[in-house]
Amino acid sequence: MAAIEVRHLYKRFEQKGVTVEALSDINLTVEQGDIYGIIGMSGAGKSTLVRCLNFLEKPTEGQVLIEGQELGALTEKELRGQRSDIAMIFQNFNLLMQKSVLDNVCFPMQIQGKKKKEARERARELLKTVGLSEKEKAYPAQLSGGQRQRVAIARALASDPKILLCDEATSALDPQTTASILSLLKEINEKLGITIVIITHQMSVIREICSHVAIIEHGVLVEDGLVEDIFSHPKSKAAKELILRDQPGNNNAPLANAVQERMQGDKKIRIVFSENSAFEPVIANMILQFKTPVNILRADTKNVGGVAKGEMILGLPEDRHLQVDIEEYLKEKGLAVEEVTEDVE
Ligand SMILES: Nc1ncnc2c1ncn2[C@@H]1O[C@H](COP(=O)(O)OP(=O)(O)OP(=O)(O)O)[C@@H](O)[C@H]1O
Fold this sequence. Notes:
The chain has twelve helices and 14 strands. It is globular, with a radius of gyration of 23 Å. The chain is 38% helix and 28% strand. α5 packs parallel to α6. The protein binds adenosine-5'-triphosphate.
């Protein structure tokens, strides 16, 4: 049975007589044990979707099923019970600033009626899981962003959830801290078998740990599937743009613009390798065979679900026949080849 199933979900907001359709006919399935990413640009509807998954936001139409149970069919009391299976962490951690780390983790257990001693024992175990045993007496203000998110994760695990929803949980963190939090989430997924849903606007987060991804654009799910497949053969414009943005130096606007300018005009293709080391001989042999230079516009290696993938964007010579021959040559060598037509903002 699927952990989460979303069927024909719509969410509309009424604001001063104007209707905003934040989500439109969303269908998706998250299997047990998946790490499922939901990605989209700002305003795409990601937060609204994740809030619909635990009915913090009630869908206008459609169904959400958690382990086969339709949330819309539950009474408020039943819904509260079901919600304890779904924990959530946020970008701004939402910790209780007047309480110590240990008391923050104990808090949901005390609300559930657990005895103080038991709650403390469990909280200490959880703090060990997230690598913060030495900080139990500290207060959130004394912790770094990454440490605060670890406390939030320990607190989320205190209710023994089956599903963990992460809403931009690493967006406020630097790249190194992001990597350590993502690897903690992966460990939790593998060791505790918790299904994880990650909401993000960063493709790097998706390829780092997600098995599946859904891409949302203007409230519509435009593409979903295995991360590796979407990374290798993106179909939607939104997926292609998100992958292109996921480049080292993409925060550097002048550099991005310079690359963009160089990329205008030429025919551009994108090629993907599973073994990045294989790039060099293929490109070198191709240049020897066709006796023409190609413009390497971008080349880097990315870690997609633990597999090193080489990616390269080539600007081809103007000669149309040569373009066809080069593409054929690369395909014969077993490379995924596709034309790059979209602009990078
Ligand atoms: N309570 C609300 N009332 C009215 N409109 C809303 C409400 N919540 C969200 N919206 C609108 O729904 C759309 C989707 O918003 P949402 O916050 O889900 O997007 P998002 O993808 O999470 O964006 P971001 O990454 O910037 O947080 C936006 O147009 C937003 O203005």
